[in-house]
Structure formats: C-alpha cells, structure tokens
C-alpha cells in the first residue's frame, strides 16, 4: 500500500561546498512489516551533521541528506508494528537499524551493535542509502522509533533524540542523582542538555565553559556552579570534588594536560567523553601517572538504547524540561549548518518543515 508520501530532502551534492544543500528526490528505505513511516515536521541540527557534511569524520556518500533528530506524524505502519498507529507523533534518532540478533541487541545494548545502521550516510542491507531528516519523511524499524509524551511539544522533542539521549544515557548509567556532584564540560548543544538533565535528576551541577557569554546561561539552565576554563588553574579549587565529569567538548587545548580534568574527580570518579571532534583533533595527551592519584575511570558513551530514550522523554515531560532552541524553516538549513559550525547557535537549531504540506 502506498501512502503517497514523496521523499524529498536538502542534500549535499558537492563536498567542497558542505553547506550548499540542494532539494532532491531520493529512494527511501524499502518498507518492511516492522517499519514505521513518518512524515517529518521537525528536525534538529546536530554537530554530527556538520562533521559529516564537512568531511571531518571521513568521506560522505553523495548525495547526502543529513539530520537525525527527527519528529513527525506516522503515515504508515507494517503488520508487525505494535505500538504505533497512523496519526501518532513519533521520533527517530541517530540510529535506524541493528542486527537484532547479537548479544548486544538482546541485552538492550542495540546502540553498540557491531552491525548498527546510522540514520544517514549509511547503507541498508539491500543496498539502499540511508538518508536523514532534512526531508519530508523517513522509514524506520519500530525498535528505533520513539513515542512522544503529550506534554512535550514537537519542537522541543526533536533535539532530544540525539543531543538529549547522548548525555542522558551516560548520566543514568553512571549514577547521576541526589547526592552526586556532576560536572559538564562544554556548554553547547550537548552540554546544555547535560545541565538540564543532571539538575532534573537531582545532582549538584558544575558547568565548565570557555565562553564567558555562556556563564549566565548555564546558571539559568540550573547549574549550581559555573566555572570559566580560560584560567589554566580553573581546576585547582575543585580537586577531588566531582563524582562524574561529562565532556561534551568538541575541541581541547593542546597545551592543557588531561590530568587537569581528571584531578577534579573524587576517588573512582568517572570521566565520560561524548563529544566527537574531527578525526584530526585528538583528546589531550595523558600519562599513566595521571590515573593513579584518585583511581579514576575514563569512558565513553554512544547515544542510548530505546528504554533509556523513553525514560528520558518521560523525565522531560514530568519535569517540564525544555531545550534552548532556535527555530528555522527547513529551507534555511544552510544558515543553521553554518551557525553550528561557527558556534553562533544558542543552543540547538530545530528545522521546521516547509518542503511540502505534511499530512
């Protein structure tokens, strides 16, 4: 059965002009009986979009439609879909597929499946190229589609599917809650969500930023303490204070040792990295001695699983969490991409559909 949904999106066709997006028609995912089809109404603009378009993470498949913070209305469901019906609001994040059969998938760790499929710049098993959310629609297996609580507006929900989940998952997994001191390094699209969620989860929140203009913003988001990282000694008053330090930083100073950050952690504290710079921008250099004074753990996190995403959405609905967003029509995706790359955005762009009427 055809729904009549035409798949068109704003695509990069020339990697030398990463933000020059052209409206194209493309072949969507082959519809299967576990799939949900969504007419897109909103899509967040992620730093991942910029890294991918600008080739910072490697060569892209062309033409390429990016965007993996997607929300819209369900237009079609397969016969095996249980939790969605036509007309429901639904969201899709940065992952759109996995093998479903491995140990990781069977233990709710599908976000670490070795055969995972990214929402864009990837390939489905039948060879169709995966295209993202700067577009009219998307199809996804029901495991990677999320229900939206009525209390959350679509424009607020959109960026939760990557930026929100990317920080919520490690906060939850590593014990964020009452009695914990949580640091957030970098107050951007990811970092501002980390402040909002850590505070909502009951932690005492420390926000670290190199941008003086963001200090007051971090306070308004709920941070209990705000610290400028311009001073090389910023970490000294906080040695041994933090239980968790979530790093969303896209760039680290080459002349600042990693131990500056690790020293702020209490015994067996955790440094969790979720920021992903370009491939030519590594983490700061570290020596084995840097791990000894407090026995710290260093780790990472990759988006989140479906259970965590639904839990995050329920928390946002219960606590009235609203991201700081700027809305632009999808036809202005170029301006949004350039605004993210230059650091102009405060703190997440959300594109609203204007390609064609959405049923």
UniProtKB/TrEMBL annotation:
Gene Ontology molecular-function annotations: oxidoreductase activity, acting on the CH-OH group of donors, NAD or NADP as acceptor; zinc ion binding
Transmembrane domains' residue ranges: none
Record's keyword annotation contains Nucleus: no
UniProt name for this protein: GroES-like protein
Similarity remark: Belongs to the zinc-containing alcohol dehydrogenase family.
Cofactor requirements of the protein: Zn(2+)
Keyword Zinc carried by entry: yes
Enoyl reductase (ER) domain boundaries: 16-351
Residues in coiled coil: none
Keyword entries, A-Z: Metal-binding, Oxidoreductase, Zinc
């Amino acid at each position: 059965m055809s729904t009549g949904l035409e798949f068109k999106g704003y695509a990069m066709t020339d990697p030398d002009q990463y933000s020059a997006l052209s409206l194209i028609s493309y072949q969507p995912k082959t519809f299967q009986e576990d799939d949900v089809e969504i007419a897109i109404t909103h899509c967040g603009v992620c730093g991942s979009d910029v890294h991918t378009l600008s080739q910072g993470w490697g060569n892209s498949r062309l033409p390429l439609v990016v965007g993996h913070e997607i929300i819209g209305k369900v237009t079609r469901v397969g016969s095996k879909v249980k939790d969605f019906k036509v007309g429901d609001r639904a969201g899709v994040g940065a992952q759109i597929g996995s093998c479903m059969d491995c140990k990781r998938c069977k233990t709710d760790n599908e976000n670490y499946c070795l055969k995972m499929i990214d929402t864009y710049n990837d390939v489905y098993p039948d060879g169709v190229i995966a295209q993202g959310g700067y577009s009219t629609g998307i199809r996804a297996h029901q495991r990677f589609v999320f229900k939206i609580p009525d209390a959350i507006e679509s424009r607020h929900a959109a960026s939760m599917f990557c930026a929100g989940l990317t920080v919520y998952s490690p906060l939850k997994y590593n014990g964020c809650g009452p009695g914990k001191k949580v640091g957030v390094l970098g107050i951007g699209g990811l970092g501002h969500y980390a402040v909002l969620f850590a505070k909502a989860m009951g932690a005492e929140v420390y926000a670290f930023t190199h941008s003086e203009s963001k200090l007051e913003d971090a306070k308004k988001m709920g941070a209990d303490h705000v610290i400028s990282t311009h001073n090389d000694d910023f970490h000294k008053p906080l040695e041994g204070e933090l239980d968790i330090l979530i790093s969303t930083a896209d760039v680290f100073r080459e002349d600042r040792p990693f131990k500056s950050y690790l020293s702020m952690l209490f015994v067996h504290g955790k440094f969790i990295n979720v920021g992903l710079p370009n491939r030519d921008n590594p983490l700061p250099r570290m020596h084995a001695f840097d791990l000894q004074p407090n026995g710290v753990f260093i780790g990472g996190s990759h988006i989140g699983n479906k259970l965590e995403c639904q839990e995050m959405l329920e928390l946002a609905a219960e606590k009235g969490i609203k991201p700081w967003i700027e809305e632009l029509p999808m036809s202005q995706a170029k301006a949004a991409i350039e605004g993210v790359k230059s650091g102009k955005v405060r703190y997440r762009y959300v594109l609203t559909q204007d390609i064609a009427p959405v049923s």
